[in-house]
Description:
heterodimer, B: alpha/beta, 9 strands
Amino acid sequence: MNASRLVAAGLRHYRRAHLALMLAAAVGVAVLAGSLLVGSSVKGSLREHALERLGNVDEALVAADYFKAALAGAVPRSAPAIMTPASASHAESGATAAHVQALGVDARFWELMGAADAWGGIGEDDAVINEALASRLRARVGDEILLRAQKPSAVPRETFIGEREETVATLRLTVKKIVPGKGNFSLTPAQADPLNVFVPLGRLGRRLEQPGRANAILAAANTDAQAKIDRAADLDDVGIKVAAQNTPATPGHAFVSVESAQIFLPRYTIDLATQAAASLHARCRPTLTYLANAMIAGGRMTPYSTVAALDDLDLGPGEIALNAWTADDLAARVGDRLRMTYFLPTAGRFVETTATLTVARIVPMTSPLVASGLAPDFPGIADAETIGSWNPPFPLDMKRIRPKDEAYWDKYRAAPKAFVSLATGRRLWANPYGDATSIRVEGVAAPALQKAMRERLDPARAGLRLEPVRRRAIEASRGASDFAGLFVGFSFFLLMASAMLIHALFQLGVQARAREFGILSAIGLRAPLIRNLMLAEGGIIAAAGGVIGLLLGTGYAALLIHGLRTWWIGAVGAPFLRLHVDAASLAGGLVGGLTIAMISIVIAARGLAKQGARGLLAGRAADEACGHSRGRMTIAISICFLIVGISLASIAPSRPAEEQAGMFFGAGAGLLVAALTLCRAWLRGNPRPARPERLSIARLGLAAARRRPGRSMLVVGLMACATFIIVAVGAQRQAPPATSDKRSGAGGFALLAESALPIYHPLDPQLPGGARAWPIRLEAGDDPSCLNLYQSARPRVAGVSDDFIRRGGFAFSQTLARDDRTKANPWLLLGPESEATRAGDVSEAFPDGAIPAIGDANTVMWLLHSGLGRDVVVDGTRFRFVALLRGSIFQSELIVSERNFVRLFPREAGWRLFAIETPGDPRPLAARIESFYQDFGLGAVATRDRLAALLAVENTYLSIFMALGGLGLLLGTVGMALALLRNLVERRREFALLRAVGFRFGQLVWLTSSENIVLILIGMAIGAAAALVAVLPASIARSAPLPWLDLIVMLCAVAAIGAGAVVAGTAAVLRSPAIKVLKED
Amino acid sequence: MSDFVNIKDLRKEFAGAAGPVVVLDGLSLAVARGESAAIMGPSGSGKSTLLHIIGALEPPTAGRVSVGGVDPFALNEKDAAAFRNRTIGFVFQDHALLPQCTAIENVLIPTLAGDGDKRAAAGRAAELLERVGLGGRLDSRPAELSGGERQRVAIARAMINRPRILLCDEPTGNLDAATGDRIGELFVNLQRAEEIALIVVTHNEAFARRFNRISHLIDGRLG
Lengths: 1081, 223
């Protein structure tokens, strides 16, 4: 006989009792492994989903401007494409879909996607759509659809020369095929399927006035694909025009002009031209040419003139030089004051302003500066034969045009009529797109300059950059939230119940075998050896349970994944989730679960060592009440936790809202532990005898509860923790707030409308009286809110106007406001009142360049993993949060000032987001504006519905927590029932005696149940009180009443389940005939 | 003197692996009020079974049982419990005290099954404990008492509801001879003072001799 054989004999003999312990250990491992498997399954599913949409595409180039489609030919296994936002409608039914992705593709795309058959037989007027769009439009093969896509514009639409009227091109197409799977192509990972229309590349290009051009290259894995594009791209592909210019007045005085299709030269183009000119030792002069609506001096007016800002004439600030023709026309002389009217460059609407300048020089018409080459090709103007045939995007007063103006146009075309210094020009016509309209390079031939520029061209910097979309999709599929951690948290109570069950079962086993261990001790085995024998038994049982737990865990994960796909779809919106079993998760679950099991076993085994051989032989285990000696220590621990709880509760009101929630929760948890510890001390204490006449069945029950304090604490602890979690979590459930309140999460806005294509006009004319729309700029990006499971690499950014900022409103959880004005309206921190602006920085950025931003607290904290005063970096731009909104409609955006928005995203013209105030029912208004702006794919949602959708996610997560908490409670109830059963079995003789002395069956059930029901109620009272401390202050602070009714119903259900289990278990045991018990004894 | 306990042709069988096992077979017994009887017999002879049948804890297979003129097995569960509570006092070999209760609380436990005057019950419990020599140990718990003291508490408990018969199952089985002797004396004194019937099952001949008569249970019958 040796220790191993003794352990083996113990395992064999007590196999039935061990089965329960093994199953408890299995549950612990199953819960942990299952939770980790959910995490890996979510990641795996997101990854599969994202990669499936990419087909074989590894890299993608999506440019802001169009380039020749043939450029794709430079990269093997690639396809050119036009990718543009659009809206679509069914030609017959009128069913519409906003936020459609229009893709101009050819057969190369489908080969790349591995679905060449999908494109077979597609004609010029045909389209292929994916299932999601077919479903949205209720379209079938053969149906006609109308596709509305935004016409590209190299000229920024925000500028006065940008086209803002004819911005949408409509295509009537016949649905030729509906392609599932590969038809869901998308470069942006998202749970929801995209709405895709595939149109022949040539057809879409022509309709968008970009024949033979594309704005995207999609490529499979290639070696040096970017280098191949770099070699193949030319200046035209990045919108650079290099042309030789001759001045009509001074033939032979030629220069080379570097211009841009965008009119205003980006900084990169200016640098490129400057470097190329320098390499050729040529002189290089930037020019900013603008269009003046009128120049007025001495009561005379010259209409519609180009004015060049350059440094050739050595003009001072506020000075203007006129060419001789204009000076003559205005009868102006040097020293005269001149008023010049012009449209502000980027007001978004036509706002005319006036500058007053002093005539400093008269430039002869023979000057090389009087050259049409100085003016860029203004759209609708440059190619016109006469001024009368101008067709510019801005309003033109033809009555101002005189015959002499036509004569000037005939002779000099767009040659400048006036000049200001470059500094003056940049001051007057400052804009985010560029501070020059051309670069004049003198002393060099155009081909030489072109060659020099091409040699130095870096297409990637100019916007032709291949992005590793596959790698990014994989990174994004790591998810914004750690689902493994989330579900470990959700399963916390289940884990705790499992640990308590293991502890209870092992302790029960130890107690049942106390006499056996006493014999071992009496015959000379030392306590550590006996303890090790027990631990070895426990460890082997736990390990066996762990193996079973891995199987159960896989099932548990499968159940949770099924739940996420069905019952809890509201939390994740990802019906494609499926179980992914990986070794790491299983190993993590096994190790973690066994660790918890062994800790529980070690704690339970501790008591054995505390009983001497005599005590063990008498059948006593550590759970017997021990009197006062341990009570003092327990009370000291309890007081410590009480102090921690009270301290946290006292400090919390002075902390920010988010910290408050955590601190109050900590305070509640501290009080919970303190109360449980006190309860334990009370149960273990040696109470002073009560007066005999007060003896009752209930008191008898209470006395019995104190007989086994460990088991009683199992019941109290379980119920306290269950109640704490139910109340604390249940109290977080929220109903959508009243949106009419300006200080609510909706800011007083009734509707939030978003268009697929930018709208360049105010919505107000379409709104009824009393309603007002606040346009907001929007840069397309990822939705960083809880509605998106993928990790957001580029959260979308919104730009709010000064009017919006001044309007204020919304509820804030934290702000950096330090004075009364910004405290009253934290929106001011974005712009005029920001720290950056006060420091004199007109760009409204912090001294280190960070842009002030506002975000929703939940999004910022949990999904962007940032916080107040902290930064997030998006494409190299740092956004610093100056205020955090609470429960707002803006959970999907980072909000910056409009000025910063325009500076950061100059190509994002127009408005796509509209916050609308309306006094009446918002839904009819939503239908009205959706109909009016159908071409722009505008969709409007009541802010109450949006908040409800966002809250639904939160509430669904709470439901998951509650459901898993319920499972934990169930498991805990099993543990409680086992402890109860053991108690009853141990006390059978006592019950037999009571029956012998005349107790009725009902009285016995009441006697025995009352002690456990009292424990249940004590536990629930402790849990509820601690939870209320945890959540009530935060609830009062945010004016969100607790869902009392729900909580009371839930707690009643818990009490009923506990009491029911107790009464049923008691009745079952007590039904055993008294005499049988007496005989057994 | 009329018989308080009257048993005629009592038969008790238990199910066994090889068929019914007959423990009591045609047993008859009569014990009058104020009379004490000791029943002796070897282990397994059915002494305790007889006591349990008299105490209405287990029904007989056949025969007639009358205790105080009542057939306890004709009563429903509620009335049977009340009958046991008011008519019978039990004393077991291992005293069967509730460890969580004090001595006086243990004595009071049978009163909880009824709805009598609590204050009066507490007074009688204290008086009983005084009578059994534990007047100074009212608030002691069983763990703080010796074996003999525990058994005295058990006797006081059995007497609390003024039973008309006391059934004692090996009350000195766990006690040394001197303590057992003192307990025997206590039984006799109490029985005389309260004028109750007393039936004691015991192996202890000396103890048995303290009572009015001694019967031996052999082959299921009293001789």
